[in-house]
Amino acid sequence: MADPKGFLNHGREVAKTRPVAERVKDWNEVYVPGSLLPIISKQASRCMDCGIPFCHNGCPLGNLIPEWNDYAYREDWAAASERLHATNNFPEFTGRLCPAPCESACVLGINQAPVTIKNVEVSIIDKAWDSGDVAPQIPERLSGKTVAVIGSGPAGLAAAQQLTRAGHTVAVYERADRVGGLLRYGIPEFKMEKRHINRRIEQMRAEGTRFRTGVEIGRDIKATDLKKRYDAIVIAAGATTARDLPVPGRELKGVYQAMEYLPLANKVQEGDYVVPPISAEGKHVVVIGGGDTGADCVGTAHRQGAASVTQLEIMPRPNDERHPVAQPWPTFPMLYKVTSAHEEGGERVYSVSTTHFEGDEDGNVQWLHLTEVEFIDGKLTPKPGTERKIPAQLVTLAMGFTGTDRENGLVEQFGLDLDERGNIARDADFQTNVPGVFVAGDAGRGQSLIVWAIAEGRSAARGVDRYLTGASDLPAPIRPTDRALAV
């Protein structure tokens, strides 16, 4: 145990953010650089080294949290990095982007503020990069087997890195022009600067992983042709089919899916555009959807100079604190969350549903009509007399995703079976109904968290390794049927 009295002597202290007036003028990460390191040893000392560390249950990766908390407390950063990488290929991603179900499951959280697990994690990995403790792990020998990974999001990258280190020759196919999937073009720069992806990709290249960008399997290369080229295939194409809003006026100009809007802002940071083709500058912006993607749209609109930003959510406002019966510890509770984007301004409206859009004579959206809703007999029902309209010159739909892309032909060309939720079906080894074809991440699980994606990639890699060689020493932190700890 790091410090037997650590949780008694120190309260929870999180990373400091830059002033709102400063950070909305740039696209750098919102946190004050270097603000964590002076406090992180004390924060790590709050870990109680529980006999049964429920944080392990909260995290699908099975991160060895008490162990690296102890090393961080003692400022043994090399050992902390080794323990961190033992279960997680990309802690710099999860430490910035994961909503931290591990903290919801922290035993200290029963009656205190939980350990700042995410902040300790990101401090360890940032220190490791700065100290040169993150080096390529080049396999000692090659197996002679080849693997294609379709998709370069967190699941695909994790599977590729594990299989490369096992000695297989791995090529990652990405349909976008750069590697990273939604990490690259779905996550705004202010949440995670893309330099973190770039240096991890360079590590993977040095280990032997090959990347093929601008290639969409199903369109540019037939799935059947790909299968002939490789001994095994991992489909990690994500769940990129966005949920739509079929209401009158949906066809108006200015109404976009979030993933039509967000990538363009990232492309400006990559140098592809001077100004984005879709911009919130000077416009009244409405974001439909109250989740993380919606918050990303809010923060992006602020930085583009929106006249106003309103975020709509059909569900009621969540509670500020965990309900002891409805959402007991150690489940991951649905709580009211104020992200950095929400700190920057805008209005959040709950329990409302969009009825239709109204445009001008040129077909541009100008107004959004909505009504309040309430639960009646378990169904969301409009409340009479609550109809109103709000100005809306740019609308982004951030209502989640319904499954993997079916339009490019990948599913049909492979002849893949789907489960009852429309995801690609797989067995206990993450193998589909087609021998040698595996699936990992949101394409098989459905829309989920980054930690689940990395865990799936690692587990699928073990299934592939066993398929190719007959046995495997690679770790498999989860099964395809595992789900988050919930009521």
Automatic annotation (TrEMBL):
A Pfam family it matches: Pyr_redox_2
InterPro entries listed in its UniProt record: 4Fe4S_Fe-S-bd, DPD_II, FAD/NAD-bd_sf, FAD/NAD-binding_dom, Glut_synth_ssu1, Glutamate_Synthase, Helical_ferredxn
Protein name: Glutamate synthase subunit beta
NCBIfam families named among the record's database cross-references: GOGAT_sm_gam
Span of domain 4Fe-4S ferredoxin-type: 38-69
Gene3D superfamilies from the UniProt entry: Alpha-helical ferredoxin, FAD/NAD(P)-binding domain
Membrane-crossing residue ranges in chain numbering: none
Alphabetized UniProt keyword annotations: Amino-acid biosynthesis, Glutamate biosynthesis, Oxidoreductase
Pathway in which this enzyme or protein is active: Amino-acid biosynthesis
Oxidoreductase listed as a keyword: yes
